[in-house]
Amino acid sequence: MNEVKEKIIALQKYLDSRIIGQKDLVKKLIITLLADGHALLEGAPGLAKTKAIKTLSECIKATYNRIQFTPDLLPSDITGSDIYIAERCDFEFRKGPIFANLVLADEINRAPAKVQAALLEAMAERQVSVGGKQYRLPDLFMVLATQNPIEQEGTYNLPEAQLDRFLMYIKIGHPEAETEKKILKLVRAEQLGIKEQDAAWQEFSKTVGKITIEDVLSARRDVLSMHMSEALEEYLVQLVIATRNPAKYDISLKDSLVFGASPRATIALDKCAKINAWLDGRDFVTPDDIHAVIYDVLRHRIILSFEAQAEGLTADDIITSLLKVVPLP
User: In 3-state terms, what secondary structure has residue 212?
Assistant: First the structure.
């Protein structure tokens, strides 16, 4: 195992020790980081969405900004704006909070369309446009957005084009009773200023503050060397194509989907499966790697028909059905 991979694995173990009961969330955040993507986290309040993102940012030598989205937010509150400097009789651009390596967009669905448009440009083009000029964002740029599925008052649905720019749409559930006891003990220890000296902390303490932007970029290059067989590549492509023509595989799904996933989903699924295998210590991809990430990659990229929604089906239900009917290699 090379030095960079050791650091990433130590990071994962450390995050698991601080974000109790959310191993899947931690792994998906690291996958998003290494895939050069953005993640949308959905879950009820109190499920450590913000804490997970903040803890991740503290472990990397990179800039971090938090933006609280509200209905009265303006695009300039995110991008920055031109400020008139009287002494020079000229305008100067003052950067907004979007100019950071890791950006937390908290309660993203509370902001109106103009703000979402400004964020979409940053996510898609890695730049912002102000006053007819374009300003580049950092090489390491990652938006981690959260939204609450319970409250709908004062919220706006994210446009499909913006949803498609998120590499992953991660849903978070409540922990089990035993896990909740561990969370309680951890919080008590933190309030007393006690750090648990477990194996994960001891291992990561050797590298904490040493995971640099170059380490992340190096890990991204390392992932590109992961092997995927042609048969598995065909399987991956067929899974995405099945979302566009589900009746070809199962006639009962004929009227379930209005729109299927775009080619961007194929690219995302390929990246995420490779990184999942890389994190699990393999140098080749298996069907299990695809299955481990397919829900997070596809659930926000397919649009269910009215009939399917009336039957109580969800995007995850459709993905499960497609996994059953698309033949394994």
Answer: strand
Distance CA 184, CA 20 (A): 10
pTM for this prediction: 0.91
Tens digit of each residue's pLDDT (9 = 90 or more) over 90-140? 888 899 999 999 999 999 988 888 999 999 999 999 999 988 899 999 999
Please count the residues of the chain: 329
Q: Residue 292 has what pLDDT?
A: 96
Number of helical H runs and strand E runs in the chain: 14, 11
Residue appearing with tokens 């209905």: 71
Buried b (16+ CB within 10 A) or exposed e, 290-328: bebbbbbbbbbbbbbeeebeeeebebeebbebbbeebee
**pLDDT grade for 279, boundaries at 50, 70 and 90:** very high
- Copy the structure tokens of residue 73: 């937010």
> What domains, with CATH codes, occur in the chain?
3-218 (3.40.50.300), 225-325 (1.10.8.80)
Q: What pLDDT does residue 197 have? A: 47
Distance CA 162, CA 117 (A): 8
In angstroms, the CA 323 to CA 329 distance is 12
How, if at all, do strands 102-106 and 64-68 pair? parallel
Residue 272: closest CA among 166, 172, 173, 200: 166
Q: How far, in Å, CA of 119 to CA of 316, rounded?
A: 27
pLDDT band (50, 70, 90) for residue 69 = very high
pLDDT for position 58: 86
Distance of CA 230 to the CA centre of its chain: 27
Integer Cα distance of 231 and 308 in angstroms: 32
Between CA 201 and CA 327 the distance in angstroms is: 43
pLDDT higher than 70, residue 1: no
**Under a CB-based contact definition with an 8 Å cutoff, are residues 268 and 284 in contact?**
no
Q: What are 273's two structure tokens?
A: 């499966």
Q: Between the CA atoms of 44, 50, 53 and 56, what dihedral angle is there, to the nearest 10 degrees?
A: -120
